[in-house]
Every structure is written in C-alpha cells, then in structure tokens.
UniProtKB/TrEMBL annotation:
GO molecular function: dioxygenase activity
Protein name, as recorded: Aromatic ring-cleaving dioxygenase
Organism of derivation: Mesorhizobium neociceri
Keyword tags: Dioxygenase, Oxidoreductase
PANTHER family (UniProt xref): AFR070WP
Highest taxon in the source lineage: Bacteria
InterPro entries: DOPA-like_sf, DOPA_dioxygen
Amino acid sequence: MPKSLRLRIGERFCVRLGNWHDKQVGPHEQAMYQISFATEIFTWLVLWLMLNHGCLSILIHPTDPKRDHLVDPIWIGRPLGGHGEVLGEEDEAEEALEVNTEPTMGA
C-alpha cells in the first residue's frame, strides 16, 4: 500500500518524491518517505490524501525540524509516536525538494 500510494501521488500531483526509508530515520518510528510540494496544491493534495490514505498514517508539516514534528503536526490517519530527542532545538529548517512539474495523470 505505501509504495502504491507514493506512485499514485507522483502520477497525479506536481510533487517531489523523496527517498524511501525502509527503517527508522530521524524522529520517525516507522519506514517512511517524504513528499515535498508547493503551497498552491496544499488543499487539493491533502484532501486527496484524506480520501486515499487507506490504513497509512501521514504526517504533514512545513520544514521546521522540531516544532512541526512534536508540537503542531497535522496527521491523516492514526498519529504515530516519534523520537523528538534526535531533533535539536536549533536545527535548521529542511530545504524544500524540487517538485515534479509534469505529473502523468490529473488529480
């Protein structure tokens, strides 16, 4: 299901699909991948994810490394725990990924 959803997102939206992580990375407790997208598609992408996430948990946050993971996260599906101790107080925000400007399907 996670790989299928990732493929469907890339086909439908102008997003950047980050690397697949098969094991815990950073504060995340489970395998995960990152999707970076422009604010202009936030509403459409989030609504689509709400209807199509199946049993997956999805964390949505801007690029602030600590606050957005621990204080103000937006979850679709069941919220998961995290390991906030690996995030420093002064960590720099993540750089946004380059987006796919030519999706192959419409939303």
